[in-house]
Design brief:
Layout: E1 3-12, E2 15-23, H1 27-39, H2 43-51, H3 56-64, E3 68-74, E4 88-92, H4 98-105, E5 114-117, E6 121-125, H5 129-134, H6 139-150, E7 155-159
Parallel strand pairs: 4-7
Antiparallel strand pairs: 1-2, 1-3, 5-6, 6-7
Length: 173
């Protein structure tokens, strides 16, 4: 039996403030209440506005842009006996080329574990440095992976609304 897993991501000024995990029962109701508590906007209203074509930034404003709920089915509810915490760096999609964005959209980078983040970007797992040497990634992705390693991050969130990182090259597209 599949269980619904929901991540509530609280953002403030393009930085992740908190990620909460919700799973059955009442996962949706609890995650929606958390979203409303953080943004002061009912999640049902937020969804209607997104479906009408508004952007997250337009709805939530600059301070809370990126805050959202992510839904994923899982085989069973996560165990609460062992909680793992991982570090995520948030990086603007301005640090990838348009060509690499297209490749990420099609999930065509061999050896890279990545998930589309709606219309806003991607979540990318940071492989170990040993694994990096055996794989060939586009230059902009390799630079971002190196940056993530320098900051001991396990995940990268590429987001179109994130701030520019001065240490990384930007691309116009």
């Amino acid at each position: 039996m599949k269980t619904q897993l929901i991540l509530s991501v609280r953002m403030f000024k393009y930085d992740i403030q908190e990620v909460k995990t919700y799973f059955e029962p009442n996962a949706y109701e609890n995650a929606a209440a958390d979203f409303e508590d953080w943004t002061k906007i009912p999640y049902s209203e937020y969804l209607k506005r997104i479906q009408a074509g508004e952007y997250n930034l337009e709805i939530l404003g600059k301070d809370l842009a990126g805050s959202t709920l992510y839904f994923a089915p899982c085989a069973s509810a996560p165990s609460l006996n062992h909680i793992e915490n991982e570090t995520m760096v948030t990086i603007s999609t301005a640090h990838i080329t348009e060509e690499v964005n297209s490749i990420l959209l099609d999930d065509e980078i061999q050896g890279l574990i990545q998930y589309k983040k709606g219309d806003y970007g991607y979540f990318i797992y940071v492989p170990t440095e040993e694994k990096d040497e055996t794989l060939e990634f586009p230059e902009c992705i390799q630079s971002i992976l190196n940056y993530a390693h320098q900051h001991d991050a396990t995940w990268i969130m590429l987001d179109r609304d994130a701030a520019i990182t001065p240490e990384l090259q930007t691309y116009e597209w």
